[in-house]
Amino acid sequence: MADFFLYVGLFVVAFLYATVGHGGGSGYIAVFSLVNFPVEKIPAFSLGLNIIVSGIGALRFYSRRLLDVPSLLRIIVFSMPSAFLGASLKVEREILSKVIGLVLIFSAFRLFMKVGNDGKNQSFKNKIDLPYGFLLGSSIGFLSGMTGVGGGIFLSPVLIIFRIMEPIRTAALSSAFILLNSIVGIIPRVGKLNIGDVKNILIFALIVLVGGYLGNYMTLNKFSQDTVKKLLAVVLIIAGTKLLIF
């Protein structure tokens, strides 16, 4: 029964997060924690699944010419060193996580209120200049490093709420941003895995591959911009609740 819940949970997380360009890292952590998965292996497994789902999204968004690579580079060049700095600081992470959890939930309600309010006359820039790249990259990277939460969960609501990028392009940028950060984050954690984990890795990878592909397909072909905003709000509530509880 625990395995069934785990498989269904991973599929649902991959599908839901992929619809907004996210990898599902915070969702996987919650699912693994609920089924008493070995704690020391949760970060590596979650990041690995994150790479698969965000990688699918990044490639498919790029193929549709929705991913603005220059904007991505302007953020990532500042976020990576800032994440390292944030991870190096000694802070009361439990208190910080709860504060950020509340901020994410507040952002979710802001997104719900904006559904249907972004008319055609309210344009998005759909690109990130260097000053914005510095501001977003350094602050989001710093928060990500301190909390251990993927930066995409902070990046997406900022880009939409402040009308920097429309929802579909926000999803594209977030997927690539999360992919690159997850690759960097998993490198020091690979050593905690062993040959006995291969079976689980393959099963989990297949589940999130299917879920992630279907979620991305729905965003590219079926969902409206408002639907993407609603789904992002749901993802933010899940991530915020995870920070408050786990």
Element layout with pairings:
Layout: H1 2-18, H2 25-34, H3 42-63, H4 69-88, H5 93-114, H6 130-147, H7 152-161, H8 167-186, H9 198-221, H10 225-245
Helix pairs in contact: 1-2, 1-9, 2-3, 3-8, 3-9, 4-6, 4-8, 5-7, 5-10, 7-8, 7-10
Would you mind describing this structure in some detail?
With 246 residues, this protein is mainly alpha-helical. The protein has one domain (2-245). It has ten helices and no strands. The protein has helices at residues 2-18, 25-34, 42-63, 69-88, 93-114, 130-147, 152-161, 167-186, 198-221, 225-245. Helix 3 (42-63) packs parallel to helix 9. The longest helix has 24 residues, at 198-221.
Which secondary-structure class do the elements indicate?
A: mainly alpha
Integer-rounded radius of gyration: 17 Å
Mean pLDDT: 86
Count of the domains:
1
The biggest beta sheet reads: none
Taking the alpha carbons of the first and last residues, their distance comes to: 22 Å
Sequence of secondary-structure elements: HHHHHHHHHH
So how many helices?
10
Number of strands: 0
Strand content: under 5%
Uncertain residue segments: none
Which tags fit this structure?
single chain, 246 residues, mainly alpha, 10 helices
Quick structural gist:
The protein is mostly helical. 75% of the residues lie in helices and 0% in strands.
